[in-house]
């Protein structure tokens, strides 16, 4: 009975061993994003004059904003390599780069070298964002695409748990090993990925774009061939037919023409709201913010919050292919509004009690968890689902630039909003991010189409047919094609 239940499970129905290994290896690369995101956030500088650990606001602002220079560079270079030389080559190159940037970080003797190392490491993260989500979306079938692409964010959060735990363990050390040991983890993942990436098949959709039809067929066979119900000729025919019917030439101007304009604007909007609703605040400054409140051990908070975020993200990616993308976005925005306005409201109290401070800490953690249940994983899913095949890399590039610019602005200005002698808003920043959360709810309701369970080719056709946002999820297409005819040159 148990075996029969497994066979009916959609994951076991669609995941072959080769496909599972491929998706897992691609997701593994994101651990380093989590290592950087949380590892740097828990590193403080000792001030011998005050005998305290802290980072000046100006340097904290630089540390969490200038890294996006590297992010933008990596995004562009990674996207170019991925589009011209393949997804696997891009992953190999970014892994070699990650080892170099890790060396700069681990050998640092001054905080300025840590800043330089982080900028270099974010070039790796930019390459990763340009390559990994599109790669995952292109190799998995529609019923599990949300789960597969969502593992990008889940792996990031798992990386945060690992490095926060290591930082907690080394926090009692009084030597440089306290921070060099956590940063040494940056070597492990790229070494594994660089060694194993050539054992996974290349994206069949990318191969077809390069007119390498036989290799695309072999890739499909290797990824899905062990599934008894899979018909490689039919699948290849549908992919070819979609490319033949596509009017785009793959140029940047095509992003803003016809039905592509709507897709591009939606992708840009999703990438804007993921940052504007507080992701830079909770991810980059959450631990330091809790430390400043003084009601909770900052390291314990970092571990607790990371575990909660990981659990929420895992639940989200497990149900998104059943529940849908839009409901998760709207639920997340609604919950974020509650937690952020609660945090801001308590911040208006001049001298909050211990219990009120703990509520602020709880609201901060729940705001981050709500984001991880919704916008964080769904953003990557939507950005890979929306574009036409010939424009996927360019759409990813443009949407991610919006993500980077928004993240840069909020990361740069947040320390000045939080701390004295500047705006000194403290937890009242919840009002700012809460207002954006309300706007994100409206955006999700009116602007985001429901794409669960639809193939990338079906999504492309629905946009070409000018189907309205509200009817998108309810409209189905019949993809019946003569595979022999479609395979003929």
TrEMBL record:
Protein name: Major facilitator superfamily (MFS) profile domain-containing protein
Keyword Methyltransferase (UniProt): no
Sorted UniProt keywords: Membrane, Transmembrane, Transmembrane helix
Family designation: Belongs to the major facilitator superfamily. Sugar transporter (TC 2.A.1.1) family.
Bilayer disposition of the protein: Multi-pass membrane protein
Subcellular localization: Membrane
Tree of life domain: Eukaryota
Pfam families reported in the protein's UniProt record: Sugar_tr
Transmembrane region(s): 15-35, 55-77, 89-108, 181-200, 265-286, 298-317, 329-347, 359-378, 398-418, 430-448
Coiled-coil boundaries: none
GO terms of molecular function: carbohydrate:proton symporter activity
Species of the source: Oidiodendron maius (strain Zn)
InterPro entries, per database record: MFS_dom (IPR020846), MFS_sugar_transport-like (IPR005828), MFS_Sugar_Transporters (IPR050360), MFS_trans_sf (IPR036259)
Domain Major facilitator superfamily (MFS) profile: 22-452
One GO term describing the cellular component: membrane
PROSITE patterns linked to this entry: MFS
